[in-house]
């Protein structure tokens, strides 16, 4: 079942989200049983209708629903089919009206399949991680799974004694029992559903000394890896300070890197933290560039978030360019050297990718990352460093904690620098053929 109204996100992540309402706040009360991989939860959503609703849909995958209440009253009817929880309230909700939904649910979570593979809840050898981009949020809580539907979150999580629980915000307290601990967390800044995360493991905290920024930077890992993580992730405070000088103030209160004791295929950012496998506890450039990449996503992706998945270059192109900037700052190859090397490589590949709408099959293609970074480097060469970095700081400031499109970025370029600068980006954004890189 679908909501009957299609959005641009339907092409990339089919069937997710209901555009007829928006969520303003999620309160998630969860109990995790690691043995047997069991989750029970109560999700309370504070929402507002966009249009008149005699029914609405939430995304939820692979879990049983026990109870649904709307504005404190049992729903007239609810039906869970595939990954859609269809709810009929007892009374029609008028347009532009606040309402609450409470869903009690349980089951054995598993990653949610999608066009680009599985995402979401994942068991570890000793613990669990949640990495939801782009469609995995319904694997662990009922939600309106759209990147443009940002809400604040409040978590209360019970896990077995001896395990650390991490989410998108700082813990405000713990209640210990004989065999479990309940962790409470402060409300988050607004975020998209795919950025909400839960990490459970036998972790210890590694604090990294500041390097010019007041933002607390820490890592979490199993005790036996603390010394290696201190070395491998010790450059993060310097990255933080440098990125603040280029991108503007860090948009959240703190930053954490969670390093699992398992190897992971790729790292992934969530809001306020990033997740890395043990295979990236290294000091070489191939690991350090990914550490820089995930940190840069806190500005480009987590605070300033795309409205539609087709604009994914606004996340990945910016974070990739941050890698090149950090390389230059830390004594490695210059950003220009990286740009020219990748331009030569991309010139020899198929010329069939349109950056502003690559299609679901190419959404995470490496060419989106590199061509997006090249578009930024070309703009920098066209307008100069002062105007370029001023533009990036204005972008992260004006759209902090908001949702954006490529058209918004082009409008800001026109507003701050001029129409010719915006026009210079057109071939990079809209032509399949890779443009020449300016000298």
CATH superfamily of the largest domain: tricorn interacting facor f3 domain
CATH architecture of the largest domain: Sandwich
- What is the CATH fold-level name of the largest domain? Immunoglobulin-like
Radius of gyration: 22 Å
Tell me, what's the shape? globular
Give the terminus-to-terminus CA distance. 53 Å
What number is the mean pLDDT?
Answer: 96
Low-confidence stretches: none
Proportion of strand residues: 25-35%
The percent range for helix content is 25-40%
By DSSP, the count of extended strands is 23
* Major sheet: 8 strands, mixed
| Strand order in space, largest sheet | 5-4-8-2-1-12-15-14
With helices defined by DSSP (H or I, 4 residues minimum), what is the helix count? 10
How many domains? 3
CATH class of the largest domain: Mainly Beta
Provide the structure class.
Answer: alpha+beta
């Amino acid at each position: 079942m679908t909501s009957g109204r299609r959005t641009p996100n339907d092409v990339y992540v089919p069937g997710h989200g209901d555009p007829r309402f928006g969520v303003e706040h999620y309160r998630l009360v969860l109990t995790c049983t690691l043995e047997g991989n069991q989750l029970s939860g109560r999700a309370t959503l504070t929402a507002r209708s966009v249009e008149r609703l005699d029914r609405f849909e939430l995304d939820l995958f692979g879990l049983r629903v026990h109870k649904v209440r709307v504005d404190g009253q049992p729903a007239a009817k609810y039906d869970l089919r595939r990954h859609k929880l269809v709810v009929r309230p007892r009374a029609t909700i008028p347009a532009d009206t606040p309402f609450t939904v409470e869903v009690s649910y349980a089951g054995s979570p598993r990653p949610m399949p999608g066009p680009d593979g599985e995402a979401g809840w994942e068991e570890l050898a000793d613990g669990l991680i949640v990495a939801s981009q782009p469609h995995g949020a319904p694997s662990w809580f009922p939600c309106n799974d759209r990147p443009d539907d940002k809400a604040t979150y409040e978590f209360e999580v019970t896990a077995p004694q001896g395990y650390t629980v991490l989410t998108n915000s700082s813990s405000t307290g713990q209640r210990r029992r004989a065999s479990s601990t309940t962790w409470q967390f402060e409300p988050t800044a607004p975020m998209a559903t795919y950025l909400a995360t839960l990490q459970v493991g036998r972790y210890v905290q590694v604090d990294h000394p500041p390097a010019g920024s007041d933002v607390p930077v820490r890592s979490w890992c199993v005790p036996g890896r603390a010394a290696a993580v201190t070395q491998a992730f010790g450059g993060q405070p310097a990255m933080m300070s440098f990125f603040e000088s280029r991108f503007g103030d860090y948009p959240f209160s703190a930053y954490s890197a969670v390093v699992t004791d398992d190897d992971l295929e790729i790292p992934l950012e969530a809001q306020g933290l990033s997740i890395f496998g043990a295979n990236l506890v290294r000091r070489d450039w191939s690991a350090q560039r990914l550490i820089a990449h995930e940190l840069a996503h806190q500005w480009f992706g987590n605070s300033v978030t795309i409205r539609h998945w087709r604009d994914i270059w606004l996340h990945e192109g910016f974070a990739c360019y941050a890698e090149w900037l950090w390389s230059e700052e830390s004594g490695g190859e210059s950003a220009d050297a990286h740009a020219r090397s990748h331009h030569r490589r991309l010139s020899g590949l198929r010329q069939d990718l349109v950056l502003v709408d690559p299609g679901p099959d190419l959404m995470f293609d490496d060419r989106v990352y590199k061509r997006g970074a090249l578009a930024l480097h070309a703009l920098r060469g066209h307008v100069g460093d002062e105007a370029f970095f001023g533009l990036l700081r204005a972008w992260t400031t004006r759209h902090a904690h908001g949702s954006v499109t490529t058209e918004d970025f082009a409008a800001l370029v026109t507003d701050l620098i001029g129409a010719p600068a915006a026009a210079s980006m057109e071939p990079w954004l809209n032509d399949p053929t890779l443009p020449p890189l300016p000298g």
